[in-house]
Amino acid sequence: MTVITNVEDLRVLAQRRVPRMFYDYADSGSWTEGTYRANNADFQKIKLRQRVAVNMENRSTRSTMVGQEVAMPVAIAPTGLTGMQHADGEILAARAARKFGIPFTLSTMSICSIEDVAQHAGEGFWFQLYVMRDRAFIERLIDRAKAAKCSALVLTLDLQIIGQRHKDLKNGLTAPPKMTLANILDIACKPRWALGMLGTKRKQFGNIVGHVSGVENMGSLGEWTARQFDPSLNWGDVEWIKKRWGGKLILKGIQDVEDAKLCVASGADALIVSNHGGRQLDGAQSSIEALPA
After folding, report:
1. 144 Ramachandran zone, left/alpha/beta (phi>0; psi -120 to 50)
2. Which of 68, 78, 193, 237 could join 128 in a cystine, given CB atoms 3.0 to 4.6 angstroms apart?
3. Mind listing the pLDDT tens digit for each residue in 111-134?
4. Which residues pair with 128 in a beta bridge?
5. Is residue 211 annotated as part of the catalytic site, yes or no?
6. Which of 98, 143, 150, 148 minimizes the C-alpha distance to 127?
7. Which residues make Cβ contacts (< 8 Å) with residue 184, sequence separation at least 6?
8. What is the reported pTM?
9. Is the Cβ–Cβ distance between 112 and 89 less than 8 Å?
10. Which domains does the chain have, with CATH numbers?
11. d(CA 75, CA 103)
């Protein structure tokens, strides 16, 4: 493919180049994937109203998001394992966002660390936080985001219990990934990806490995992560995190009007209407369907 014209071209390229377990991680939802598919289908139903004979000179998509000027009102959402889609993926995405003039959001579950990405990100460098049972680790993570000069903290509220993602189970996507014969053969057929990964030192979860006692490699990470997502997360924790952070706070994963009101009451600066890309509660509304209310 010599000319890239749209996002679908990029998806096709990724499917060719990226090992199946990592491609499927990005292109999948939970359980039946009904909500995952609805996110796209319901968005496509929305049509633009076309007006004519209006002066189009000096038109601009520029706007502001949480007080920062942006080239257009769009931000790159946090995606775990981006550094396994492509070597140093989070760094490359942050560079692209900086060049275009929009915010980039780094996931807690990124391969490149906050400190790695901070060297390449622009002013719109947001950090997405998952709340773990180890509150001391969360405090250190917030402090690291402050030191990296992140301009906003994006607190994800809809991952207290991880959704069942069947493609990940079938592909053996664990930490570390299961090196089955099928996975080994698949990686062998993706030489561009494999050479990129051989050429980078960033192959582990940079925000976690080496920053938690007892988690020094991918093997120990899997056991730690399995017991760390906190089902007791509540609005009191949101207040605690806001106080600890002290900067702009964005709450992500809001699908219900009552929760939106609680976001306002908690002192959040913004909220993100989201169902985690259809990767959590299957059968929930699409994000765009939930947005108007």
Report:
1. alpha
2. 78
3. 999 999 999 999 999 999 999 999
4. 154
5. no
6. 150
7. none
8. 0.95
9. yes
10. 11-37+61-290 (3.20.20.70)
11. 5
